[in-house]
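From the methods appendix. Each design record in this collection lists the tokenized structure first, followed by the designed amino acid sequence. Records were kept in a plain field format so they could be parsed without special tools. The example shown here is representative of the layout used throughout.

RECORD:
FOLD TOKENS (314 positions):
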């Protein structure tokens, strides 16, 4: 399906119009929630506020990853330089990503979605699964095993951990500093600021959230986009991609920064995140989404991800 069949050139130009104020507002909101979550525990340290903070922080860590994604596409700020700089230092680095590595894989995903060559296919091809299988995955997320596996894969790919001539595994500090200087600097800066405020222990909340709630939110968000869609191996985004309309609390957790409008993003990746909701309404009004899978919330998606016992027995 070609979006140009439904929109004029002027309408498409308006949809793709980038805005620095809108872009900066997205960062202010995301970092504002992070500061609020940390401040909540700083002023009222107790198990309830810690739990609330970890949910908010995990959601904002996903939010920063989404903003990194937007900057990587060059769709958030008005200039490429600003997208690259802000995307690297204020979005990717705090959540231990390298924006270039991420986009190398992500652009292949856009090019190969709907085919066996999609580099992300293994994440969602096997769904739906039994409830116990999804439960095991969520437990791995919450206990940090998913995060450790992510670091292992990334470190191996970047030769941070390698096998030397004597067949021993080695850790390369040089490669680590060369490849991951931005994440190291960004996280050290966070720790320095919290230490200057007399609250260095709050940084542990950031790490704990990254090793738990963030990975759960990221998993469900990812599965919502392409798992159990009408036709996974179709070259039509309307068939191989899902949009999910979130509730207010899901916007804080599974769907920050309009990442829920994933079908719209695949139809036209150059549309900034702050125009995707309008794009969705226009597509809906013009009948483009009549055959699409539009889920009403992420809990509806979770139900689709789980195979029914009777179906499994059959």
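DESIGN:
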């Amino acid at each position: 399906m070609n979006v140009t069949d439904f929109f004029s050139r002027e309408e498409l130009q308006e949809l793709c119009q980038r805005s620095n104020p809108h872009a900066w507002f997205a960062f202010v909101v995301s970092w504002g929630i992070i500061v609020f979550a940390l401040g909540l525990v700083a002023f009222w340290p107790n198990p309830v506020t810690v739990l609330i903070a970890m949910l908010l922080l995990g959601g904002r860590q996903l939010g920063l990853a989404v903003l990194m994604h937007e900057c990587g596409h060059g769709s958030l700020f008005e200039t490429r330089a600003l997208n690259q700089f802000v995307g690297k230092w204020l979005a990717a680095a705090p959540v231990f990503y390298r924006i270039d590595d991420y986009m190398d894989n992500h652009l292949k995903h856009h090019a190969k979605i709907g085919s066996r060559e999609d580099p992300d296919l293994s994440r969602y091809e096997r769904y739906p699964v039994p409830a116990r299988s999804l439960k095991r995955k969520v437990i791995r997320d919450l206990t940090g095993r998913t995060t450790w596996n992510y670091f292992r894969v990334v470190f191996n790919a970047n030769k941070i951990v390698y096998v030397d001539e004597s067949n021993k595994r080695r850790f390369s500090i040089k490669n680590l500093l060369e490849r991951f200087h931005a994440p190291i600097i960004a996280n050290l800066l966070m720790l320095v600021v919290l230490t200057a405020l007399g609250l260095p222990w709050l940084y542990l909340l950031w790490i704990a959230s990254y090793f738990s709630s963030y990975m759960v939110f990221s998993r469900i968000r990812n599965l919502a986009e392409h798992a159990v869609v009408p036709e996974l191996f179709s070259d039509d985004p309307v068939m191989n991609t899902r949009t999910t309309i979130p509730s207010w609390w899901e916007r804080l957790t599974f769907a920050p920064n309009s990442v829920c409008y994933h079908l719209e993003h695949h139809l036209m990746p150059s549309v900034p995140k702050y125009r995707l909701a309008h794009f969705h309404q226009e597509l809906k009004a013009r009948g483009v989404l009549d055959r699409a899978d539009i889920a009403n919330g992420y809990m509806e998606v979770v139900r689709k991800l789980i195979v029914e016992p009777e179906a499994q027995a059959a």
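APPENDIX NOTE: The first helix runs from residue 9 to 15.
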